[in-house]
Structure formats: structure tokens, C-alpha cells
Amino acid sequence: MLSFIALAARPEFTVSAVDCRDDHRGWSAERPRADVRLVLVRSGGFRRRVRGVCTDLDRTVGYLGLPGEEEHFSHPAGGDVCTSISLRPDLWRSLAGEAPLLAGSSLYVDGRLDLAHRRLLLAARDDGAEELVGLVARAVQQVVSTPTPGGSGDSALVAKARGVIGDDHPAASGLIPLADLLTVSPYRLSRAFTRELGVSLTRYRNGMRVSRALDRLAEGEPSLAALAADLGFADQAHLCRTVREHLGHTPTALRRLLGANRTSSQTKECADASPTNAHELLV
Fold first, then answer.
1. Is 171 within 8 Å of 179 (Cβ atoms)?
2. Which of 152, 149, 9, 20 is nearest to 74 (CA)?
3. pLDDT for residue 271
4. 3-state class of 272 per DSSP?
5. pLDDT digits over 224-258, tens only?
6. From the CB of residue 236, how many other CB atoms can be counted at a distance below 10 Å?
């Protein structure tokens, strides 16, 4: 029996937790799928057969599945829990190349790949795009033998990206749409940002959003839910986590620090004053 829990669902990718409670030594066939998927085991194990090659999968070995493959699975040791990452074909091509030559489909999960997996699971509830791109790029380094997309001119690329983010362009909502707008791979853009500025693109973009949140809070913005929606956060909780991570204070505490509550109160008092009383105050 299979159960799926969606951890992240974006137009470019999905991340799901898959719990398989099966126990059989024989092979079961799966329908060929149309997506590219990266599967990493979190607990337990199973066997996979594709193109006549059998692989034992556990926390140390995952796999890359490609569109149209005929797959067979066996669970001789019981069930398993996995993370399944489904990628949009154009996102896969931007990371692996237009016609990648694969050295194989099995992935050795070393310490760095394991850490990238864990970071993705933590970040998936908010955005997770940068963590996902980093994880897939590590997988590509293992299984793709053709050169992957790259290039020079990182300074100019980062300057363009900063301009788009500063202008609050809709494509600045995430790493992948921003890379699409700039016609580069998400991996290259992510790496260039870190090399040039010493911070990730996600942190830079969130820093800009936090700055805009401060402006709104100082002006007396009453609704954190509306603020989160306007600034592109997943929800109010995402806004609060990000603001606290960057500033060490919650939005509510920042209202007090910025005197927003007092300013709003004074504004209301002035609005309530009658013309006569206002005139008397000036005399």
C-alpha cells in the first residue's frame, strides 16, 4: 500500500513523502511515467529493476527515473519511506543539458547529498527551490557524463538579477522563474549569486522582502496576512519566520520598536478631531 504526502507543489517541481507498506519478494510492474524524478530513501529499503539492471536501494543509494522507463519494484525486506522529487522537463534540461548522456541511474548518497536532502525537507514548506536545485545539481554530477550548462559573466548576471529583484518584477518570486527570465540555468544563477555576494539568492531576495515589510510595518500596516500575501510569502507564518530569522524580532515586536502602534493611534486621534477643536489647538 502506497501513501503520498505533498511537501511542496510548485509549477516547476513537486516534493512528496512516499510511505510504502508492502512486503513481497516478487516484482511488481509500474506504469511508465512522463516525469523526471529523483527518489531518496529515508528509511527501509527496496529493489528496483530497469532495463534489466537490478539495484538495491536504501539510505545510501537512491535513483533517478526518466520518462517512459519500464520499472519493476520488489520489497523483500518490508516497507520503506522515501522522498520523491518530480521535475518539470524544462527544469531538468536546464540543469542537466538538452540531451544529457547518463552514466547510470543509481545515486550514491554521500554526506553532502544527504545534507542537501535534509535541507530540502526543512525548506520545502516555504519555497525550497534553491535547496532543490542544489540537490538535483549534485545528482547530475554523479549520473550525467556530458558537460552541464555553464558560462562566464557572473558579475553581469548577478547585477541583472539584483535589478529584477529590486524592481519587484513578478519573476523575482523565486529562483526558477528568475532564471527563466534571465535565460540561464537555475543552478548557474544560484552559484553565481553566492560567489559574487557571499549570500544565497534566496536570502538576498528575502532580505529585500523583509526591508519592504519594515516599510509597511512602520507605516502602520494592520494585517500581517495581507502583508505576507502582498510580499509573496507563502503565508503569514512564513513571513514571521523569515522576519525573525533576518532581524531577530517578530513583526509584532517590530511594530512596537518602530512606533507603528503609537503612530497609528495619533493618526486616528487627529482624524477624529472636530474642525473646531483642531482650530483651537492651532490658536
1. no
2. 20
3. 34
4. helix
5. 999 999 998 888 999 999 999 998 999 999 888 88
6. 16
